[in-house]
């Protein structure tokens, strides 16, 4: 009886033309958890899906994604509807955005997405309304809160464990060496640790390129093995300390052929005693 009452109230909300929402008796949330992204999505029959998503280093987003109801060139209205059991028809408007002809994804980012998520925790419903090419009047799409709390805890936990670094922050790294040395300094080890920890959680990394260099101090017959040794010291560190697969790592030794600064000064030579590590997807 309670479910029937709830169902009746839910459909008592006003509709413009065609309203889409998950069935009250069969609302399904899907949580995807990884160190790099978290999503909490709901399937909406006849429309597509909607829910929340966050990539590490990025802002929270709320998206409604249609599989069959492309927009006209007009506007999409983002609203918050009161919980059906409150029996109130008014809606709070979050924002209005222009739509392009054929648009099928409608998103809020940052503060507005966080506001919508907070409203769902209080039992309210995010709603979008926009002119669709499928109907003469507007389409209304509602994100249901049914079973929301059952999945929200897992989504929150995922958000709290997102990896702190993004690909753009670690995909290029330069470490420096002392004169005639191939030993990694504590500073270099710390930087390489940060890079390796990211590689361990990002399955899209398919290559780690190491390019080693020397300054022009000393004879070339000594600098060539020194440049090789610097690259190898990085490779060994990644493999032994973090179990990075050897087949991911490639090495190029340039000796003094590609200086990044003038070799005429001590500071310039210090900048040239380096290895550059690049992550490739």
UniProtKB/TrEMBL annotation:
Gene Ontology CC, one term: cell outer membrane
UniProt cross-references to Pfam families, sorted A to Z: MotY_N, OmpA
Entries under Gene3D superfamilies matching the protein: 2.60.40.2540, OmpA-like domain
Boundaries of every OmpA-like domain copy: 164-281
Recorded superkingdom: Bacteria
Subcellular location(s) per record: Cell outer membrane
Entries under SUPFAM superfamilies matching the protein: OmpA-like
Name this protein carries in UniProt: OmpA family protein
Organism from which the protein derives: Methylophaga thiooxydans DMS010
Taxonomic lineage of the native organism: Bacteria, Pseudomonadati, Pseudomonadota, Gammaproteobacteria, Thiotrichales
């Amino acid at each position: 009886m309670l479910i029937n009452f709830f169902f009746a109230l839910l459909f008592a909300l006003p509709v413009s033309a065609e309203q889409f929402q998950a069935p009250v008796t069969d609302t399904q949330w899907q949580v995807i958890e990884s160190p790099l992204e978290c999503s909490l999505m709901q399937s909406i029959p006849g429309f597509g899906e909607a829910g929340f998503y966050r990539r590490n280093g990025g802002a929270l987003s709320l998206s409604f994604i249609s599989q069959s109801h492309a927009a006209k060139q007009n506007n999409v209205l983002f609203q918050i509807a009161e919980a059906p059991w409150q029996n109130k028809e008014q809606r709070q408007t979050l924002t209005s955005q222009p739509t392009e002809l054929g648009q099928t994804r409608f998103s809020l980012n940052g503060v507005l997405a966080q506001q919508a998520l907070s409203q769902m925790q209080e039992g309210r419903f995010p709603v979008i309304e926009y002119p669709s090419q499928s109907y003469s009047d507007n389409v209304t799409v509602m994100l249901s809160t049914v079973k929301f709390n059952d999945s929200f805890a897992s989504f929150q936990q995922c958000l709290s464990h997102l990896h702190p670094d993004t690909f753009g922050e670690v995909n290029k790294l330069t470490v420096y060496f002392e004169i005639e040395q191939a030993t990694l300094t504590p500073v270099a080890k710390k930087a390489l640790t940060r890079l390796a920890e990211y590689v361990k959680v990002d399955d899209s990394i398919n290559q780690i390129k190491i390019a080693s260099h020397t300054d022009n101090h000393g004879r070339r017959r000594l600098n060539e093995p020194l440049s090789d040794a610097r690259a190898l010291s990085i490779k060994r560190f990644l493999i032994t300390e973090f179990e990075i697969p050897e087949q991911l790592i490639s090495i190029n030794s340039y000796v003094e052929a590609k200086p990044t600064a003038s070799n005429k000064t001590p500071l310039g030579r210090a900048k040239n005693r380096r290895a550059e590590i690049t992550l490739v997807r």
